[in-house]
Amino acid sequence: MAITKIVKKYRLLPFLIGFIIGDFIHAFIMDLQDSGDFFNIESLGILLVAGPSTSPFLCFSIMISCGFVGVFLRNLISNKFKSDKREQ
């Protein structure tokens, strides 16, 4: 019973992790366009903040799609482990 409460408590965690990774992906794309330096910590902070404000549609679409990929991967991995347990 306690495990189901923990799972329900962290249901949005894969989406949020994917959402944050999407922000880093957009910052890396901005680095490729010479908008800043991705590998410098100060410039990375500027890229992470400036991304949603300079091109919100592109940035949020990347972030949301990465969030959905995170949820999809979580479901895929959990289904794979469930099917492996049934076979044993």
Structural class: mainly alpha
Basic shape: elongated
Largest sheet: none
**Structure annotation, total helices:** 4
Please give the radius of gyration in angstroms: 17 Å
The rounded distance between the terminal residues' Cα atoms is 24 Å
Percent in helix: over 70%
Give the low-confidence spans. Answer: none
Q: What's the helix-strand series?
A: HHHH
Number of E-type strands? 0
Q: Give the overall pLDDT as a whole number.
A: 85
Strand content: under 5%
Tell me what the structure shows:
- The chain is 84% helix and 0% strand.
- It has 4 helices and no strands.
- The mean pLDDT is 85.
How is the secondary structure organized here?
Layout lengths: L1 H8 L3 H20 L8 H14 L1 H32 L1
Helix pairs in contact: 2-3, 2-4, 3-4
